């Protein structure tokens, strides 16, 4: 995540308890796998979302580096969507793990 603050100070100094909102830019990607059975066939559609965060908390997940997070032969990218349900149940999306402590 990239951090943007509407206040003075550095991004690392904010503790979430100052009462002022914090703005984060979250990068999310849609991955189209209809061509994913061949190398370079998967199509990435990056999307950025601006979030306004208020309140307290201490969760600080580590980020991922782009480029470099994905490789063209990763199992979640080089994937044949036409193999049937048994294979779909074993699909693992590319990227890092879901941060511990998140609630859905």
From TrEMBL:
Q: What is its main location?
A: secreted
Q: Where in the cell is it found?
A: Secreted
Span of the signal peptide: none
Q: Which keywords accompany this UniProt record?
A: Carbohydrate metabolism, Cellulose degradation, Copper, Disulfide bond, Hydrolase, Metal-binding, Monooxygenase, Oxidoreductase, Polysaccharide degradation, Secreted, Signal
Q: Which cofactors go with this protein?
A: Cu(2+)
Spell out the Gene3D superfamilies in the cross-references: 2.70.50.70
Q: Name one Pfam family in it.
A: AA9
What would you give as a GO molecular function for this chain, any one? monooxygenase activity
The record's annotation in InterPro entries points to: AA9, AA9_LPMO
For this protein, the Enzyme Commission number is 1.14.99.56
Q: What GO cellular-component annotations does this UniProt entry give?
A: extracellular region
**Please, which domain of life does this record's source organism belong to?**
Eukaryota
Q: Name one GO biological process term.
A: cellulose catabolic process
Which residue range or ranges hold the Auxiliary Activity family 9 catalytic domain? 25-84
Task: Please give the catalytic activity noted in the UniProt record.
Answer: [(1->4)-beta-D-glucosyl]n+m + reduced acceptor + O2 = 4-dehydro-beta-D-glucosyl-[(1->4)-beta-D-glucosyl]n-1 + [(1->4)-beta-D-glucosyl]m + acceptor + H2O
Q: Which family does the record assign?
A: Belongs to the polysaccharide monooxygenase AA9 family.
Q: State what protein this is by name.
A: lytic cellulose monooxygenase (C4-dehydrogenating)
Lineage per the UniProt record: Eukaryota, Fungi, Dikarya, Basidiomycota, Agaricomycotina
């Amino acid at each position: 995540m990239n951090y943007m603050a509407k206040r003075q100070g550095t991004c690392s100094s904010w503790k979430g308890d100052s009462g002022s909102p914090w703005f984060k830019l979250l990068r999310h990607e849609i991955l189209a796998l209809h061509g994913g059975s061949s190398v370079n066939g998967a199509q990435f559609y990056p999307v950025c979302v601006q979030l306004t965060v208020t309140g307290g908390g201490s969760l600080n997940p580590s980020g991922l580096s782009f480029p470099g997070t994905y490789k063209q032969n990763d199992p979640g990218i080089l994937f044949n969507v036409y193999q049937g349900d048994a294979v779909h149940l074993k699909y693992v999306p590319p990227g890092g793990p879901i941060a511990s402590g998140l609630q859905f």
